[in-house]
Backbone:
């Protein structure tokens, strides 16, 4: 094949800066290449073979990147573990993934130690010091920095967020595939958005690396020869500063980032030179039309959107697509298909909402250890994550909501996302969640839970003001019957709202009607 892929690029230009850590430290391609090679040699000495699993509990930065690069050239499954999990939850993933090695950072020492019993002591390694873990030097000390023999393509195995029960590992089959060719094939992901290779490009990592898209987009950018710049914790103005400082060309974002950026004072937003931005790609949660429009007005035609899932397949909306069809998440990728079906699994006409099924060429997967769930989410070769949407006459996909979040009130289907999109644009709202709660007469009634903007006083007056703002924009049957206020909504750092945490207390003692 060609000349892309991290290892080829690292050998051709080892002195190129391949990554910048959250602390500003620069790391060359040659350094990362050598470190990844040492990890491969060290884990092979521990007995790891192709197809085995490796788990990493790592903050954003090069330590996790090294594990990822090691797995991809040794034929292992690498699982980056969510650092918000508790010890027992981490232990579940260690056991379920059948991990043969666990590397944890001392920042998460307490929960890593609680999870340690799930894996043998000689297979635990610490970046820094963790009780019961061997220092990383025990693994890589004395190991050669030269490329390992018998290299074979590995993969990440991410765990779904578990919003409907225990998380499941999304596992793809591994073949006897050359890692350099595999890395070059990976670059097809960013090519869908028109992203080009080359050392002038810089990819900003804005979200935790344990998320599928963050790993995939960052990894793909690295394989295209881009420099990765890591954020440890996302901050709106800090992001603008980094974009100017490193001449960032591309990133992966979520709508929550947009909302926070647009909340910055005008003088702050104008202070930074953002002329380098070319491909600012977002997904993971619905983006309200006014928010997206405001970002396009500010940043210009560099804001791309897509819809996809860990399991594979998806759509892309270029800025031109979105301007022509506001609210769309785009049309299928060249290697993907979208199918919209009713409850009887029959295709529906254009404009009619149904369950969204996707398919991607060559994307066979299973939920590890759960053939029943794998089968339940499939319709022949297509799969669904439970979203509801419709295609317009030109084949552009519009999302309504998740099926599990749909409210049935008085026999009418109501999509909370539609209501949330109208409320979140109110200047006194930082974030909002809408869901159904029990109602003896109607089955369910609509509840809104609002996180007020900074400095805004919650209470009945604010609730009344928010509801009044819906006048003429949303039919009264879709208005929330009540509004509660919280300091912070429970969102994952990838923007996904953990609505179950908000909704469950209202349903205690009730059987859900849907």
Residues:
């Amino acid at each position: 094949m060609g000349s892309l892929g991290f290892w080829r690029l690292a050998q051709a230009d080892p002195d190129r800066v391949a990554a910048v850590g959250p602390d500003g430290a620069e790391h060359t391609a040659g350094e990362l290449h050598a470190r990844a090679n040492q990890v491969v040699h060290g884990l092979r000495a521990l007995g790891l073979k192709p197809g085995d699993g490796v788990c990493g509990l790592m903050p954003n930065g090069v330590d996790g990147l090294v594990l990822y690069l090691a797995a991809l050239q040794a034929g292992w499954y690498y699982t980056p573990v969510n650092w918000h999990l508790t010890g027992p939850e981490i232990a579940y993933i260690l056991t379920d993934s059948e991990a043969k090695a666990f590397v944890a950072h001392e920042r998460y020492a307490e929960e890593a130690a609680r999870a340690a019993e799930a894996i043998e002591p000689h297979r635990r390694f610490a970046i820094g010091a963790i009780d019961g873990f061997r220092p990383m030097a025990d693994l890589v000390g004395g190991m050669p920095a030269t490329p390992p023999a018998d290299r074979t393509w590995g993969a990440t195995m991410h765990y779904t967020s578990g919003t409907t029960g225990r998380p499941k590992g999304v596992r793809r089959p591994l073949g006897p595939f050359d890692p350099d060719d595999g890395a070059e094939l990976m670059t097809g992901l960013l090519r869908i958005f028109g992203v080009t290779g080359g050392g002038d490009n810089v990819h900003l990592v804005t979200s935790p690396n344990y998320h599928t898209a963050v790993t995939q987009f960052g990894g793909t950018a690295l394989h295209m020869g881009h420099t990765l710049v890591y954020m440890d914790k996302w901050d709106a103005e800090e992001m603008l500063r980094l974009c100017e400082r490193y001449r960032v060309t591309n990133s992966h974002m979520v709508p929550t980032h947009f909302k926070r950026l647009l909340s910055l004072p005008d003088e702050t937003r104008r202070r930074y030179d953002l002329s380098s931005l070319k491909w600012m790609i977002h997904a993971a949660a619905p983006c309200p039309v006014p928010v997206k429009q405001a970002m396009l007005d500010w940043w210009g035609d560099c804001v791309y959107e897509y819809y996809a899932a860990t399991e594979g397949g998806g759509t892309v909306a270029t800025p031109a697509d979105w301007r022509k069809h506001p609210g769309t998440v785009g049309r299928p990728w060249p290697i993907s298909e979208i199918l919209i079906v009713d409850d009887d699994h029959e295709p529906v006409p254009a404009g009619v909402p149904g369950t969204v099924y996707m398919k991607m060429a060559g994307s066979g997967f299973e939920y590890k250890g759960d053939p029943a769930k794998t089968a339940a989410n499939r319709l022949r070769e297509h799969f669904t994550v439970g979203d509801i949407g419709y295609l317009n006459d030109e084949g552009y996909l519009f999302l309504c909501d998740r099926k599990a979040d749909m409210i049935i009130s008085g026999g009418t289907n109501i999509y909370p996302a539609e209501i949330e999109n109208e409320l979140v644009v109110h200047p006194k709202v930082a974030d909002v969640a809408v869901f159904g709660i029990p109602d003896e007469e109607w089955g369910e009634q609509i509840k809104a839970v609002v996180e007020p903007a900074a400095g805004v006083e919650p209470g009945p007056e604010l609730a009344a003001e928010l509801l009044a703002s819906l006048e003429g924009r949303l039919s009264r049957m879709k208005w929330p019957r009540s509004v509660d206020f919280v300091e912070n909504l429970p969102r994952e750092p990838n923007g996904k709202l953990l609505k179950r945490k908000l909704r469950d207390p209202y349903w205690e003692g009730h059987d859900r009607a849907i």
Summary: Residues 333-405 form a domain with the Luciferase; domain 3 fold (CATH 2.30.38.10). The first strand starts at residue 17 and ends at 20. The radius of gyration is 23 Å. The first helix runs from residue 6 to 12.
